[in-house]
Design goal:
The protein is α/β, with parallel strands linked by helices. It has two domains: 2-153, 3-Layer(aba) Sandwich (Alpha/beta knot); 170-225, tRNA(m1g37)methyltransferase, domain 2 (Trp Operon Repressor, Chain A, Orthogonal Bundle). It is built from seven helices and nine strands, in the order βαβββαβαβαβαββαα. The strands form three sheets. It has a five-stranded parallel sheet with strand order 2-1-6-5-7, with helices on both faces. Strands 3-4 form a two-stranded antiparallel sheet. Strands 8-9 form a two-stranded antiparallel sheet. α1 (21-28) links the parallel β1 and β2 (32-38).
Length: 227
């Protein structure tokens, strides 16, 4: 069973994303164990502080090295971890290939930054990988961590009702998914393409492949440059 430990100063932000839908079902089925840890357990002083002013006088508070170090050391004493991942806007851009790779791991730590960021010594000595979910800044790493966890967990065998569904997701072959339709075959004069109603698997597959390529050329041509 995969284990994912998420370290956060506001763990409540992760309650809902990890309790419902595919991730929640995977947890209840015993396919993955996701534990969210409050870094304030190892906070400094009577107020359990986890942040302090930065050296150099820059504006904003910085997450301190000691609480993060102590929590990671506690977890490492209990099991071996394949990666300690810091969710960072300047990390490598998350792709489907990275999610595929991480879904094959056994134990992961996801570190959520907050405030102005984390003491750089954490990145130098404790973090093994940094991942960004996009070229923008959010209030903390909790939402990116939930996003990363979701993209990983759905690939675990048994997480999806139809395990072949993940194979046809966008980006699996560096292509966007083709259009999808369901009943009724006609609504408000808008019709489902005839080929999808033909019952001919070969023709349907050819149509889907052509549509995936056409949509990728139109909407995300840079994906084709990576092939």
């Amino acid at each position: 069973m995969m284990r994912i430990d998420i370290l956060s100063v506001v763990p409540e932000l992760l309650d809902s994303p990890l309790s419902h839908s595919i991730v929640g079902r995977a947890i209840r089925k015993g396919l993955v164990d996701i534990q969210v840890h409050n870094l304030r357990e190892f906070g400094i002083g009577p107020r359990r502080n986890v942040d302090d002013y930065s050296y150099g006088g820059d504006a904003g508070m910085v997450m301190m090295v000691e609480p993060v170090y102590r929590m990671i050391e506690k977890l490492k004493a209990e099991r071996d971890y394949d990666e300690v991942i810091y969710l960072s806007p300047d990390g490598e851009r998350l792709t489907q290939a990275i999610s595929n790779e991480l879904s094959l791991k056994n134990n992961l730590i996801l570190l959520c930054g907050h405030y102005k960021g984390i003491d750089h010594r954490i990145r130098e000595h404790l973090v093994t990988r940094e991942i960004s979910v996009g070229d923008y800044v959010v209030s903390g790493g909790e939402i990116p961590a939930a996003l990363l966890a979701d993209s990983i967990v759905r690939l675990i065998p048994g997480a999806l009702t139809d395990e072949t569904s993940a194979l046809s997701d966008s980006f699996q072959d560096n292509l966007l998914s083709p259009p999808v339709y369901t009943r009724p075959a006609e609504f408000n004069g808008w019709k489902v393409p005839d080929v999808l109603l033909s019952g001919n698997p070969k023709l349907i597959q050819q149509w889907q492949d052509a549509q995936a390529l056409e949509r990728t050329k139109l909407l995300r041509p840079e994906l084709l440059e990576d092939n």
